[in-house]
Model the fold of this input.
Amino acid sequence: MFQDKKVVFSGVQPSGNLTIGNYLGAIKNFSTFSEEYHCFYCVVDMHAITVRQVPADLRRRTYETLALYMAAGLDPKKNTLFVQSHVPAHAELGWMLNCFTMFGELSRMTQFKDKSQKHADNINAGLFTYPTLMAADILLYQTELVPVGVDQKQHLELARDIAQRFNGLYSDTFVVPEGYIAQTGMKIMSLAEPTAKMSKSDPNPNAIVYILDSKDDILRKFKRAVTDSGCEVRAGEGKDGINNLMTIYRCFTGKTNEEIEAEFAGRGYGDFKLAVGEACADALAPVREEYTRLIADKAYLESVMKEGAEAAAYCARKTISKVNRKLGFVTL
Ligand code: TRP
Done:
């Protein structure tokens, strides 16, 4: 699609409260693709409405999510940043791909099963076909690489299957995308229960560190982090709390486990927790500052959305035209 560059696409749910797990596992990596690839990062508001949303909150979080990604280092001049509902081609291709996706395939999606249990009063068709809309997001831009968390691997596999099926029936139409599952930080665990993933839906506020938490909050949460009865800062089996803190410290400082063990030899858990808190707070301070500046400037955020949507729509149109022709739609 771009003579010179391959395409990266990823979608992010408009939820303002992103955690350091999201930051280390996804957002921080996003900007590393910008030089080598043409990157599309999309705030997926149409996916969000598969569960009930308060309209004012959805609107606010759409701005917040864009601002947060920009604050975390995504430059709108180097990446196409846009909002899904601003490019109707997503819904268009989503419909077409529904006709090439099997009921059985969608029934097997673990996210659908989980969410249907969680929202038993609202198992709507959109929740069911969520993965075909996601496939449309990806395939519209002839995407080569899709950075996602492990939880989205199954959806990505389905997108590949749909692309291959369509290509098989109508000759080459879509690039078959590859997933890129982040290595570092993909498993940041809860600070309160270090055997479970740090999740923004955790009811215990001390379990989660948000990207936008104040320095005081960050230090307090790390101080209270659950560890074990030992006292030596050393990675090891059964030391889930310490292992998790070491992962976080590694991600923020770039140090290795050996370096960390040497740094804290003979110093105990208290010192270590404080150091992890400080490293985290220091790394996030500039992100928070930039976010505060951006979120106050709605006009600028809207101009970014607008330019992003125009650039995305232009590329999406080419794929839609191709698909229309292949399917046998009359084109005028
Ligand atoms: N389903 C993804 C999630 O919940 C978000 C998403 C939507 C996405 N469309 C996408 C991710 C396309 C990658 C590519 O995290």
Q: What stands out?
A: The chain has a mean pLDDT of 94. The first helix runs from residue 20 to 30.
